[in-house]
Design brief:
The strands form three sheets. Strands 1-2-3-5-4 form a five-stranded antiparallel β-sheet, with helices on one face. The chain has two domains: 115 residues, Phosphorylase Kinase, domain 1; 236 residues, Transferase(Phosphotransferase) domain 1 (Transferase(Phosphotransferase), domain 1, Orthogonal Bundle). By secondary structure, it is an alpha+beta fold. It starts with 18 loop residues before the first strand and ends in a 7-residue tail after the last helix. Bound molecules: adenosine-5'-triphosphate. The site of adenosine-5'-triphosphate (ATP) has 21 residues, from strand 1 and strand 3.
Amino acid sequence: MEPSPSSPPPEILNLDSIRALKILGKGATGTVFLAHDVVSLFAVKLVHKSSSSSLRRARWEIEVLRRLSVESNQNPFLPCLLSTFESPEFFAWAVPYCSGGDLNNLLRRQNDGVFSSSVIRFYVAEIVCALDHLHSMGIAYRDLKPENILIQQSGHVTLTDFDLSRSLKKPTRPQFYQPDPGSKKNRSFSRWISPETESNKTGLKKPRSARVNPITRRKTSFSSGERSNSFVGTDEYVSPEVIRGDGHDFAVDWWALGVLTYEMMYGETPFKGKSKKETFRNVLMKEPEFAGKPNDLTGLIRSLLVKDPNKRLGSNRGAVEIKEHAFFAGVRWDLLTEVLRPPFIPLKDDVELTVGGFDIREHFEKQRMMMTLSASPSPLTSPSHVCHKNDPFIDF
Ligand SMILES: Nc1ncnc2c1ncn2[C@@H]1O[C@H](COP(=O)(O)OP(=O)(O)OP(=O)(O)O)[C@@H](O)[C@H]1O
């Protein structure tokens, strides 16, 4: 996984000149801090080099961000890399701060836990553009879920968390990437989502479900290949071909988009079972259920949630097929960022940039000491057991 030749050299993140204000989120691999220097606020992700898999994932995530920072690769719905830092114990890197939190929180804050179809159209259109851009770079995202969709200060979305993404061979079909279909009328989106409520202002999000355990235990590398055989994703968003271990390509992202759109419409995912096994059985066997009359939105979801990846919307001509769907009639794809009033605009963070905060390295040291203490082997436990027990990616 060599950096691509066109990647800009990363700026060095100077940990001496920044202070962290709070933890924005904790995931399977890292901790994300809101940090500041005297000039600006940004997000810093810190990943322990505790295992070879977290090391590999962090390196890969930095590499994807680096590629996204090349001027010709920048996209309004994808982040760029501001700076990086590496010590013998950890990686840290800074990306722009998204003050609106994630789409999961926003969805849960709605009175009935769902979005209207015009709001769904706004968010899905931007996500389609982000995925289209990644695919055009030969990257399958593979971890689409509301927790990984962040809201920028402007109200537009940014995808985050690229550690499960994968470099695949770019589609070579000539019709795959065509100019945006465009259309006559621009669409206006009214601002109707209530601002942040008190109950959700604090507290870290808890991921809804852990990453799935590897079922196909084939070792994978991140080198380019046409299809990937690794087993990754989040239970409720995993596609049938991933569960079957058939090998998968960019169509896994269109499946996950179907699950996400369904969740935005109904407030719950379509295949969730009482257990992981039941969820997977549903993904493989069950057709999604739609309350109410069929319409363009349910039609879009249905065509994304086609079990056969070769018949799924997007599998033949990529994002163009999705953009042409009747649900998006009237959307000016080239003007998405010009929409003046996205559905939700975050309140401005009122932060004094010269004072306050804590040192990220001190925080890291404390965490490490606590981890060391809690992982001290009891006389009855073998060291290898302690070391591997909690690493969900040990076989990835
Ligand atoms: N740029 C950002 N601005 C604001 N919040 C962010 C930013 N990046 C990440 N976060 C918050 O931190 C959370 C965890 O980030 P991220 O998903 O990158 O970490 P992770 O360790 O890779 O998690 P996962 O277990 O999902 O892989 C996000 O869901 C989000 O709430």
